[in-house]
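Extended Data, panel c. Modelled sequence:
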Amino acid sequence: MTKRLGRPRLHLRSVDSTNVRARGLAAAGAPHGTLVTATAQTAGRGRQGRAWRTPPGRALLGSLLLRDWPRLLPLAAAVAVAETVGHEAAIKWPNDVLREGHKVAGILAEGRPDEGWMVLGIGLNVAVRPDELPPEIRHTAATMGLEPSDVEPTLTRLLTRLEHWLAADEPAVLDAWRARDALLGRAVAWAGGAGTAAGVDRDGRLVVDLADGGGRTALDAGEVHLDRNSG
């Protein structure tokens, strides 16, 4: 499924968004595995339309075009990114990779399955210094603490891990994801309620034991936060 990820590759000194450029290539018929990377982004996005801003040359900014992808793509990608970061990395459902409890990477999968393509965007703070982070996220963001020269080797490792996990069977992906679950057993809240995170189900949905004995629910999308008012 995942042979030759990263080929062909388009690298840009500056781009509005690697995902936007990769989506354009998808519409133009680019092949599976096409990779768009950039030294800097001017309009990178995470979930909920948030900006992803990093100093030029200090982050891994890339988007992969996939013509064939696993059902649990976001979970498989998160495991690959976490393994690239290191053994201490954890995953916060649905798409953040954490280091020491702070976000070091974000993942955004978007596409048009009916047209036969998905774009997997990944932003990873490889060599960003803490004082270079925007003031509004310094208390929540993290970095791998490496050097700019490490961005390319980190990309190579990431592509290798993606090759493995995008081809892995679903039980293996779920086991690996669950081993790095940052929310398990913790109080969480979202727009529709609150409860205690109880892992992910076989479809990659976040399972939550509802507060006050209200039963159990499974979330398949949306923003989930640690409930700071609990306990």
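The mean pLDDT is 91. This feature is highlighted in the accompanying rendering.
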